[in-house]
Write a structure and sequence with these properties.
CATH class of the largest domain: Alpha Beta
Number of domains: 2
Structural class: alpha/beta
Largest sheet: 10 strands, mixed
Order of helices and strands: EHEHHEHEEEEHEHEHEHEEHHH
Helix content: 40-55%
Radius of gyration: 20 Å
Strand order of the largest sheet: 2-1-3-12-11-4-5-10-8-9
Oligomer: single chain
CATH architecture of the largest domain: 3-Layer(aba) Sandwich
Number of strands: 12
CATH superfamily of the largest domain: Isopropylmalate Dehydrogenase
Low-confidence stretches: none
CATH topology of the largest domain: Isopropylmalate Dehydrogenase
Strand content: 15-25%
Number of helices: 11
Bound molecules: 3-isopropylmalic acid, manganese (II) ion
């Protein structure tokens, strides 16, 4: 019996979460597992009413779940940063979700801006460290608001934090069993402290994985290769900030926010899965938003819980739907409504 916490959040979050849950129900039926849902109404609306983002009591409740399924966070009436920091980043840090897992996979029939590239070329996974680096919040101001002001934002990289992320990446690469190649993405030529540590940890851990080919690319160069030669990549591991940036680039090459899913993973604890697009306020309540990213996030959730067959079935169903049904990935242009897309996936899984 899996306990799944559901946080639909803002905007179109609840609509796409509903489709993810439909798919969960179908997968549970077919593959014979049981689950129990607990709903959490944290998000912009609640913040505007109560001033509360994600209280410590919610974190304690999250810790009792097996996984969290998140819709979207972001509200037009809330100043940018408050909900991101107060909900998303707080959950990542408090639950020590030290891996951000972002598959970059071009599904059949999905348009990519990369000319002459197809699904066989764009199929890799970015593993982003998710609790350290520039996101640690270390730094401060000096003489703020004066002509002499100084702003310092420090990148914190601990040997433990870096090594556990790298180790996860090697394990993931082995388990994925595709090209057996892991690329470290850094900036060793300029960030000579941070990526010296990363590179040493990477090379040391690599000795334990002789079956995996290792590779290195600077972050700026990887942005070129992800556009020009995405087929070079199997698994990429990188720090928090670089990972944030390159995964948005990757998401665009796989067809955009309607399809890109991600996981915030604590391999020893509670993980949280989300479609990586935002709350899309202008499409809210119209039944036009693409739910496939949320459905893909549900697939990642089930894979992480160990329901590999169900996860594979979801991935295959999504691939069938993009390849044979949807006209476009864009909201309002799919040729189907949000709930109809969910139904298409459910039908395939139930078969
Ligand atoms: C992401 C998002 C977040 C991040 C924001 C919303 C804080 O961009 O999940 O990639 O920067 O990590
Ligand atoms: Mn981001």
């Amino acid at each position: 019996m899996y306990k799944i916490g559901v946080m639909p959040g803002d905007g179109t979050g609840p609509e796409v979460v509903a489709e993810g849950l439909k798919v969960l129900a179908a997968a549970a039926d077919k593959y014979g597992f049981k689950y129990e849902l607990t709903n959490y109404d944290f998000g912009g609306e609640r913040f505007l009413k109560t001033g509360e983002t994600l209280p410590d009591s919610a974190i304690e409740e999250f810790k009792k779940q097996d996984a969290i399924f998140l819709g979207a966070i972001g509200h037009p009436d809330v100043k940018p940063g408050i909900l991101e920091k107060g909900i998303l980043l707080k959950a990542r840090f408090a639950l020590d979700q030290y891996i951000n897992l972002r598959p970059v996979k071009l599904y059949p029939g999905v348009e990519t801006p990369l000319r002459d590239k197809g699904p066989e070329d764009i199929d890799y996974v970015v593993i982003r460290e998710n609790t350290e680096g520039l996101y640690a919040g270390a730094g401060g101001f000096l003489k703020r608001g004066t002509p002499d002001e100084v702003a310092i934002q420090e990148s914190i990289n601990t040997r433990k934090g870096v090594e556990r992320c790298i180790r996860y990446a090697f394990e993931y690469c082995r388990d994925r069993n595709k090209d057996m190649k892991l690329t470290l993405c850094g900036k060793t030529n300029v960030l000579t402290f941070e990526f010296d540590l990363w590179e040493r940890a990477f090379n040391e851990v690599a000795i334990e994985y002789p079956d995996i080919t290792t590779d290195y690319a600077h972050v700026d160069a990887i942005c070129m290769w992800m556009v020009k030669n995405p087929e070079w990549f199997d698994v990429i591991v990188t720090d928090n900030m670089f990972g944030d940036i390159i995964t948005d680039l990757g998401a665009m090459t796989q067809g955009g926010m309607g399809i890109a899913a991600g996981g915030n993973i604590n391999p020893e604890g509670v993980s949280m899965f989300e479609p990586i697009g935002g709350s899309a306020p202008k499409y809210t309540g119209q039944n036009v938003i693409n739910p496939l990213a949320a459905i893909g996030a549900m697939g990642l959730l089930l894979a992480t819980l160990g329901e590999k067959e169900a996860a594979a079935a979801i991935e295959a169903a999504v691939a069938f739907v993009t390849g044979n049904k949807l006209k476009s990935m864009a909201a309002g242009k799919m040729g189907f409504s949000t709930s109809e897309v969910g139904d298409l996936v459910v039908e395939l899984i139930a078969k």
